[in-house]
Amino acid sequence: MDLLLDIALLALLLVTAISIAWIKDLFAAAMLAGIYGLLSAGFFMTMGAVDVAFTEAAVGAGVSPLLILLTLGLCGRYQRADRNRAKMAIALVATVGALLITATADMPFFGDANAPAQIHVAPHYIQQSMAEIGIPNIVTSVLASYRGFDTFGEVVVIFTAGLGVLSLLMANASQPFQLNPQATVRAQSRDIVLRVVAKVLIAPIMLYALYVQFHGEYGPGGGFQAGVIFAVGFILYGLAFGLDAVRKVASHGLVQLLSAVGVLVYGCVGVVSMVSGKNFLDYGALAGDPIAGQHIGIIVIELGVGITVASVMIMIFYLFSAQLQQREVELPAAAPDNNPEMDNGSGGLKTLEGGAG
């Protein structure tokens, strides 16, 4: 039964991926991308990777399609035909695919007990994790302690990605973090059902994010998953009640500051370890008992991860939403008086249905 479920999920993933590459309606492609993320989360669940399924469900099926739709609001809905670019893309994909298929010939069989991954560090993690780290969730032990330096690099990458998006979207924006006093403030959603459902769901979402954040030592979860879930709560609030409303709760400046604070918290744990005469990110220096030090260090660095991930997600949503808000204000103002479509305030719709390079 499990094999049939895996085959069905993989077949649906393949069909969805081909559809995304084939379709020219980018709005439909964004919806298919969300379906692909949801299917991937289901596949990870069947493989026992619950932590990865958490992240994939929140990012791949939730936040990513939303950010893609916000991007389409700026660049257009339909893809412009470019045969030369399509030929180059097909050639590149075919070459990389052939290389990957060739490389699989040197890989061990799936589930092989003699594979390098099974005889190198994995047995040590499984057998010694409880004695050395003192927490039952081996995934958290590996990510937060054994591979703490690597996870620190991942957090820095997320922070750098947020800075990259910030730099790109600020390049042509006059005042991206301040409302134009002459601009029309985007009203909250007129759908009363959406507003009521949002009010009901936001508090449980935040509470569940805190549970995932501080329960990651004992079950699936941790800073990455909690940060994404926490960001989803803010994004849902912004979608239901408007960008201005959510920025009153957490301003642009605060979100930017927190995205750096999370990285700083993680790095400071390593600095404290070095000052105490231990190696970088050796949590044993944080307490007299090495096991207690591991607990303290993991809780603190996971908190830093959650802060950075949530802040970067919210910041990206703010930036795209502010760009759309500015576009909706500028297009009607720049429209000629004899254009009834622009006069009716359909600038945002025309932008969405325009061409994308």
Account of the 3D structure:
The chain folds into two domains: 107 residues, NADH-ubiquinone/plastoquinone oxidoreductase chain 6, subunit NuoJ (Four Helix Bundle (Hemerythrin (Met), subunit A), Up-down Bundle); 200 residues, no CATH class. The longest helix is centred in the last third of the chain and has 45 residues. The chain has 15 helices and two strands. About 7% of the residues have low confidence. The chain is globular, with a radius of gyration of 23 Å. It has 357 residues and is mainly alpha-helical.
Summarize the SSE layout with pairings:
Elements: H1 2-22, H2 26-46, H3 50-75, E1 78-79, H4 83-103, H5 116-119, H6 122-132, H7 138-146, H8 148-170, H9 192-214, H10 223-241, H11 243-249, H12 252-275, H13 290-334, H14 340-343, H15 347-352, E2 355-356
Parallel strand pairs: 1-2
